[in-house]
Amino acid sequence: MAAIRFLHVADLHLDSPFKGLSSIPKNRWQEIRESTFHAFNNVIQHALATKPDFVLIAGDIYDGENRSLRAQHLFQKGMEALGEGGIPVFICHGNHDHLSGSWVRFQMPENVEVFGRDVETKTLNVKGETVHISSFSYKERHIREAMHTYFPKANGQDFHIGMLHGSLEGNKEHDVYAPFRQSDLIGKGYDYWALGHIHKRQVLHMDPAIVYPGNIQSRHRNERGLKGFYEVTLTKNNTDLQFIPCSMFIYDQLEVSCKDIVHANELISRVEHQLKDYVESNGNAIIELTLTEITEETFEMLDTSSREEWLAIFQESMDQQNPFIILKDLVIDLPINQLNETLMLTDIWEEWDFTHWKLAVKELYQHPKGSRYLPSIDEDFIEEVKMESKQLLNKAVTRGV
Ligand SMILES: [Mn+2]
């Protein structure tokens, strides 16, 4: 039996607005703003170069339900390029680009099959093998129904692939859409489950493989590390997954030890060296910098200027670099002897879920006038609050406030 080879891509979020990045230097902003398109183009180029049998895109192609005109146009161009390369594409839409949004309609080229609002199965022939792909598109933003129940069972021969934009039942970190349990999917007897929705790459199960490839471009600090898609080679008794990174830049954290640092110039050159090493092995990055192993003396030195001033100095040395590094935040650990006190405080919220956070900011959010100006309480918001609280705590503890 021949092997089939395909790309499993999800969560392109084309034209994502990168809201949290307003402080990015102007000369880089355009590149950042374009990064989802850049990453998408990398997917297309990889497909054209490696000629897979087909490509699966498991939802959230567009970031907004009112798909931007430009995103649609560029996506269309990408699909046409794959068409010219003779590569079929199978698409479903997710909660972000559900079918009830309003958008200008583009006619997809013939190589592209888009799943409709009900679960359906499309069949194609690959090197003499029959491949059945089952999926559906979100008819509206919130699909709470267990859609897997509508997926047909495998027929025991042929290849069967399920493409599902949704999340594990009981997932606490994300809105749960089209919920499933692993056993539900395994029970269908499919060869591969191409999932979308969760932006963190993860292989939930092998044999059969149940896979989230993650999104193709990180968009904020909660989407750290390499982003990309999977190239999958499937036979009836083996699944080979190869991760292909494709993002324009990554988010990451970098720790620089202040051990033995006495003067500012030593610190600046140590940070500079580490940033350069980082960028050489990882490419473009937005970095959250943490200074660790700080003595009382170093802390005092750091405290004479604001975090912003230090960041600006560290950033200066990287300004003309390509690949680039953008320093987004600076966290200064407490002097070693005081670390324990805040650890106890910050430990508490590591246990918190969304409900705890909502309760903690309840009064603010119930304010009749003020509430409309507040951001929604999501992972981004929580990370922001944690970071700022940590810095305030550090200051308070050091100064004995
Ligand atoms: Mn998504």
From TrEMBL:
<dbReference type="InterPro" id="IPR004843">
    <property type="entry name" value="Calcineurin-like_PHP"/>
</dbReference>
<dbReference type="Pfam" id="PF00149">
    <property type="entry name" value="Metallophos"/>
</dbReference>
<dbReference type="InterPro" id="IPR014576">
    <property type="entry name" value="Pesterase_YhaO"/>
</dbReference>
<dbReference type="InterPro" id="IPR050535">
    <property type="entry name" value="DNA_Repair-Maintenance_Comp"/>
</dbReference>
<dbReference type="GO" id="GO:0004527">
    <property type="term" value="F:exonuclease activity"/>
</dbReference>
<keyword id="KW-0540">Nuclease</keyword>
<keyword id="KW-0269">Exonuclease</keyword>
<dbReference type="InterPro" id="IPR029052">
    <property type="entry name" value="Metallo-depent_PP-like"/>
</dbReference>
<feature type="domain" description="Calcineurin-like phosphoesterase">
    <location>
        <begin position="4"/>
        <end position="200"/>
    </location>
</feature>
<keyword id="KW-0378">Hydrolase</keyword>
<protein>
    <submittedName>
        <fullName>DNA repair exonuclease</fullName>
    </submittedName>
</protein>
<dbReference type="InterPro" id="IPR041796">
    <property type="entry name" value="Mre11_N"/>
</dbReference>
